[in-house]
């Protein structure tokens, strides 16, 4: 519009204050030193077999170490 002969100044805007609000990301919090606790719950009940059987995974299982494996990977 400014190039047209009939153009008139549309006005001016004066700001007396300006307030910027920064929204932090998850990474910003971690880099800032925030400590995080991780809790994992896994229910393998359906795949463990009958609870009465002594060889079922309800009594002994490699699954006991899985949350530690996942937590160790997240930790690093």
UniProtKB/TrEMBL annotation:
Biased composition (Basic and acidic residues): 52-76
GO cellular component: plasma membrane
InterPro entries per record: Copine (IPR045052)
Top-level taxon: Eukaryota
Start and end residues of each stretch annotated as Disordered: 49-76
Gene Ontology MF: a single term: calcium-dependent phospholipid binding
BP term (GO), one: cellular response to calcium ion
PANTHER family linked to this entry: C2 DOMAIN-CONTAINING PROTEIN, COPINE
Protein name, per record: Uncharacterized protein
């Amino acid at each position: 519009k400014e190039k047209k002969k009939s153009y008139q100044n549309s006005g001016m805007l004066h700001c007396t204050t300006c307030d910027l609000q920064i929204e932090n990301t998850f990474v910003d919090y971690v880099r800032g030193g925030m400590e995080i606790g991780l809790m994992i719950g896994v229910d393998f009940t359906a795949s463990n077999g009958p609870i009465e059987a002594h060889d079922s995974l309800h009594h002994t299982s490699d699954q006991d170490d899985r949350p530690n494996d996942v937590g160790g990977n997240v930790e690093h």
